Each structure stands twice: as structure tokens, then as C-alpha cells.
Amino acid sequence: MEVESPNQIMNNELVPVEDTQSMETEMQLDLLEPEANHLEELTPIIVEAQPTKRRKKKSVVWEHFTIETVAAGCRRAYCKQCKQSFAYSTGNKVAGTSHLKRHIAKGTCPVVLRNQERNNQSTPYSAPPKMSSFTDTPKRRYRTASVPYLSFDADRCRHEIARMIIMHDYPLHMVEHPGFMAFVQNLQPRFDMVSFNTVQGDCVATYLREKASIQRVIEGVPGRICLTLDLWPSSRTVGYMFVSGQFIDSEWKMHRKLLNVVMEPYPESATAFSHSVAACLSDWNMDGKLFSVTINQPLNDAATDNMRALLSVKNPLVLDGQLLVGNCLARSLSKIFEDAVISVDGLVKMIRDSVKYVKTSESREEKFIELKQQLQVPSSKTLAIDDQTRWNTTYEMLLAAWELKEVFSCLDTMDPDYKGTPTEENWKQVEILCNYLKPLFDTANLLTTAGSPTTNTFFHEAWKIQLELARAASSEDPFVSTLTKSMQENFDKYWKSSCFILAIAVVMDPRFKLKLVEFSFSKIYGDDSASYVKIVDDGIHELFHEYIALPLPLTPAYTEVVNGQSAKPEDPQGIGSNSVGLSDFDVYMMETTSQLSKSELDQYLEESLLPRVHEFDVVGWWKVNRMKYPTLSKMACDILSIPVCTVPAACVFDTVRKEMDSYRCSLRPETVEALICAKDWLQTETVEAPVAPVKVEVPI
């Protein structure tokens, strides 16, 4: 008497519903037999202890295999074509037929594969299986396992390999590595592995497709575009300029895109930065759209003159090239932090050694946590050894250690090996250090938020840092003055190069306007503040008049911009657009009307301030009020999109400048640009500033 086991039922493709999920992966690899062979197996066999005859094997697998007994209780299946053997049964355990099907269907059998190539035929299992219905039985419910038919697409595979290399910074030469080639061949023998030159072309093709879509976005931008320049050095003495663009589109959403990676053979020359800007404007056809340039490092006088000369030519109507930000905020904060830590290096090392003593031993860390619980220290901070290439980790280490100072002070009572406990005076100095580092940390954190914060956000942070450091540098406490002197000197350089742009940006915030500039400058400059406020006031009025004088197609005062499309004015008299004198008449009316009534800018500045709410979408406010301020709203969007940082969010806290690796330096400059830009476009969707409903209703 032979009893058919549940394993045999499973191998005949009847799978309990509860178990199908765990077998899904295997079933996706297992091409099924034609439907006719499954119809007989839909009804599960109820196991009963009664005599049965051995069923005839009906699977088409046995047309290609024979079963031979190799030992007592052990049988193996032999391929009729290549004579390779496979496990079939040992005792009462049956291996099933899935691995036998794969041998034939996947082309593993060399004889079958050669026959297929010669006859251009498919395997017995290449037909797509059909889904079978559920069958209910008195005991359990079963269904037949089946998978959708997936056709092989060589072009799609090449496309995905190119995307994989771009997205993960893999070397192009990986397609010629023996290990990768063997992996792909085992995965899909029909795929012809591509060469280095082929995959390089595929990556460039991916870049060009993505570039075309970015080009359409840029062409539809109603306003101007702000650029950032970030220079990467290399071991080969050439530099790579990363040129990014930031702008607000016709739907009033913020975008930030990497546009070019320009190789500069002489990065130290006075023309390197201006050459990269000119190359970007030419490549993207952005002449007439440039608004401002933000650079990752201070320029010498010759480089500054070259850049301003370029701006005055490419953008003559915007303050004659004055909108040049000579310092990246992220790099400035990093430099200030480094100077502060260096000035108290012994103190920072003492704290770091104490943290390392605890964190490098599980037993010591357990003692530390136990002592913390005994002392009932309320801090929720966790100790961590800092990464000296990321300055935020050093700040967080110092702050956590200070909050846990009571535990450190008592640690030697539980652990006699702990030496070098910081004194009470040391902990006071750590507290002072953290207090002056906190504004830097908070400001840098703003640069890492999702989307791109508008420029006005950073005026609040910058003027408070400038004021606090100026006061601290003149402190009578020698520790405070020594600590903050170099910090104040470095931040003062950033403030002088950037305060004008930050100030005109905060004027475009209806909660503050020029009032906050007057207030903050009075704190910083004292009796001389009026002259500095006048510079900002005159500058923003001059910029507004330049927007008034812009050509008609670029000025929303003449056309209503809705979703990036200009509404055509009605022409009831049938007068054509080329009628003589009407364009000049529009300009005349604007000039004479502005003399008799207040301008949009003056009207905006004289209106009362909006109440300060915690979450305020300044771009959304200008969108709502664009009909009331048609020209000023466009100028506000351009100003609010000026970037203060040249590096991506992931690099804001870096203390080491990025450097182009030697492998990419060995590639053609065009290939390097394609790989890096395409990764930026594929990895990040359009960076949009969140457009929340404006919470304050303002009459229009």
C-alpha cells in the first residue's frame, strides 16, 4: 500500500492558500506546464489509508528526463540531452519537478539551448500560463500557483543598467568586470553584455532625455533664474564647477536643479567662475534670464571684476550686476565652527576622550546608564562619538555630554579606571561654547529642510548671529572674547558680502518689510544705521524701476500670467499687434501715471504689516496678491529665490570640501557632466517649496 504524502500534493502544483505567499518567489521562477496538464490537478487529493496504484507521470518534464535508481532508496533524474543528473527522491521525500523545468526552460541545458538557437524555437514551458480558478474542498481551499508572462526586452535591460550606474555612482567599467558579466549571464543568458563604450553612450542618452524635459521647464519660467557655483578640486589640478539653478515656476513653486558640471583646466584663474556662468547661459539658452550668482568661496578682486562685468553684460537691467553673493552660507558656518573648536581644542578633546571612554566598551556604557538612572538625570540625550568630517556631530556630542555632566562627575566612583574627569569650570566653558554654537547649528539646519527655504528666512538668523558675536567679542570674560573673536571676524565677512541681498529679501516679506531692516540695523550699526537702511531702500527702488522698464513680454504689468501663459488682450477694433505707437503709448501711460500716483512698491511699503504667524508662505502670499502688485510680485519671486547656499542639503555640515575622485577625472568631461547631472535629475523630483494656503486674508 502506498500513501501519497502532502509533499506530493504540493509538488503537483496544488498549494494551500495560506502557504502561497511564502512560495511566491519560487513560483515566479517556475514556468508552468500547459493548462491541459493542470486541469487534472485542480482537485486536491484527500489522504486516505487505502490501496492505490502508482499514477502515471503526465508532466511533460518526463519527456526530457529519465529516473534511475542510484542506491537503495535514492533515485535521480537524468536529462536525456546533456545527461546531467538532478535529485529526485530520497526515501519518502520527493524533490519535485521545479528544478527540472528550470533546466529546460531557462536554457541551462546546453543541448536544448543549441537546438533552440538552430531551430528558433522556444522551450516547452515558454507559453504564458493562464490563471486557474479557486477550488473549494471539504478540508482546505487550494489554488494553482501561476505567474504573469514576462517577455525579455534587451533594450529595456540596457536602459536599466545605465540608470543603475547613474543612480549609484558605479564605474562604467563594471560592465566588463568578469564577476558582473557572469552574474548577468546566469540571470539571463539571452542578454548580450554591453561594452564600456556602449554603456557610456546609454548613460549619455539618458542624460539627454532628462535634459530635454528640464529644458522645457526652464523655457516656461516666467521670471528669472538664480545660479550657484560650487568648485570641486581634483588630484589632477583641474577643477569641476557645479552650476545649479534656482527659480520659481509659473505655478509659483520653487525648483533647484543641477544644470552643468564644467571642467575648468585652471580653477585658480580669475576667469574660471565667469567662464562657467557663460557656458551655462549658452548651454541652456538663458541669456536675459539671469538674476543673481552665489559662489561657494570669496573671490579675489580680479575674479570679482570679471564676474560683475559678465553680469552687467548678461543682465544689465538688474542693478548693473550687483546681485553677486560672494560667500556660501553653509561653508561660512562650517569655517566659523572650525575656528571656534580650534580656539578651545583642549576642552573639546577632553570631552571627546570622556565620551570615547564610555562608548568604546559595552560594560562601561552599561555602568554609565545605570548611574544615570540612579542620579535621575532628566536628559534624553544619547552619547555618541563625533565624526570630525561633520561638525553637527561634534556639537551634538558636546551638548549631550554637558547635559550628562552629573553622570560624568560621579563616574569615577563606580569605575576607578576613569581618569580625566572635566572640572566644574570645564563644564561651564562647554556650556558657553554650546550657547554660541547653537545659532550656527540652527541656521545650518534650515538649509537641510525639505524644499528650498526662501531667502528672507535667513535674514532673521544672520542679523542675530552678527549682533551676538559682535557683543561677545568685546566681552570682559577672557574665555568668551577668545572664543568669539575669530567667529565674529569670519561671520562679519559673510555679513558684509550678503546683507544687502538678505535685506531686500526680507523687505519682500509683508510681515516685516523695511521695518525689520531698520530695527536690526539700529542694533548692529547704532547711530550709523540710517545710512545703511538708505542703501537698502534706494537699491530696492532702483530694482523696481528696472522691472518697470523691462520689455513688455517679460513684465506681468502688461499681461496676466496664468500658469505660465500670457493672456492675449482683446482687440475689439481689429488693430493688429504690430500697430504703430501703441507699445510706446503703454510705456508713456505707465510713466505719467506713476508720477501722479504711488507706485506698487511705495503702496506696498506704506501698508500695515501682516500679523506674524508661525507658518507663513511668503510666495503663496505674492501669488494671491499678484493682481494687486503685478510688477512687484514678479520682482518678489526673483528676489525670494536667490539661494544663499551652493551645496546640497547632505553636504551642509561637511568640514571637508568635496573633491572629484580620480576615476571620474579619467573620463571625458562630457561623460562626467552627463553622469552627475542625470543622477541629480533622476534622484530628486522637482524641489517644490510647500505652498500652504495663506492664513491671513488681505483685501485686494
Description:
The protein has 700 residues and is of the alpha+beta class. 49% of the residues lie in helices and 10% in strands. It contains 26 helices and 14 strands. It has a five-stranded mixed β-sheet with strand order 10-9-8-11-12. A hairpin with a 4-residue loop joins strand 6 (135-136) and strand 7 (141-144). Helix 11 (329-343) packs antiparallel against helix 16. The protein is globular and about 105 Å long. The chain starts with 5 loop residues before the first helix and ends in a 17-residue tail after the last helix.
Give the SSE layout.
Elements: H1 6-11, E1 14-16, H2 24-29, H3 35-39, E2 65-71, E3 74-79, E4 85-90, E5 93-94, H4 98-105, H5 110-119, E6 135-136, E7 141-144, H6 154-168, H7 178-187, H8 196-219, E8 225-232, E9 239-248, E10 254-264, H9 272-283, E11 290-295, H10 301-314, E12 324-325, H11 329-343, H12 345-359, H13 362-375, H14 391-403, H15 405-414, H16 424-447, H17 457-473, H18 478-507, H19 513-525, H20 529-548, E13 561-562, E14 565-566, H21 582-596, H22 600-606, H23 618-624, H24 630-640, H25 662-665, H26 669-683
Helix pairs in contact: 6-8, 6-26, 8-26, 9-10, 11-16, 11-18, 13-15, 14-16, 16-17, 16-18, 17-18, 17-19, 18-19, 19-20
